[in-house]
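tool=predict chain=A
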Amino acid sequence: MSNLIYQYWQGPMKPGVIASTTLMKKYAKSIGAEYRFDHNITIAGKVVNVPIYYEPANPLIDASFDEYDNVALVDIDVFPVEGLTDSMFDLLDGEDAGICTEPKQPYFRTIYASGGITSDIDKKWAEVCKKNWGVVYPVDEKKRPEVFNTGVVVISKAGLAKMKAEWPTFQEYVNQMNGFPKFYRLFQDYFSAFIHLPGFKLKRLPNEWNCYMHKVGSHPNAEIGDNRGDNAKLVHVMFRTADDWPAEALWQIVNSPVSEWNLPVNANWPNDG
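tool=predict ok
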């Protein structure tokens, strides 16, 4: 089996970017996978008028990815825990793609409206996806649309072929989402919609493969949401300034309890604005 871990970054090579690429390359080697990092490329940006936000989708455009049995898309703010040797490519068993949910997001979107993102708008977005493309989008027990996070995605060869042959173009999707807040026009919602097309075989990955650290709210003293649990594999450091932080600080965030962080910063750190 030929497997590839793919990361992308637009902008200068900041400390956090270097830390993530270094650790993901090391992890790829440990599981016998290849690693590819694209820096400041514009392939996806040439086919959609939403700059940079579709660049992580290059495997859906670039034919050089077709040779692999599986391709993993991994965000630049995702880090493997120390000593991880479990292979993310063992997660698929004949499915087209695998992805994790953000289980708390449907609730958060009922109490916050950051960037115009709300549960009510999620419902309208899902209706547009159903009307235009026949997407059957899942909801939770309270009828709120679920939220999927493209920070970690595993795609099989068959799945990638389906995406290229059956999914609408990025621009077609963006055009139908005019009038929605910008967030709904970006790659994460594009991908989240079409993995729910009839006939697409989706695997819900255990959340330990994309367990996120974030601030609950935007004020400086907001509580840190630690979703790592007891068996974290890949940690998604969703603080806005994480790419500026040194590798030593990021290692603590990924591997240590919040109570044990010893970081050379002010009392409100990490402050994601």
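Strands lie at 3-9, 34-39, 70-74, 78-80, 97-101, 148-156, 202-204, 211-216, 223-226, 234-237. The radius of gyration is 18 Å.
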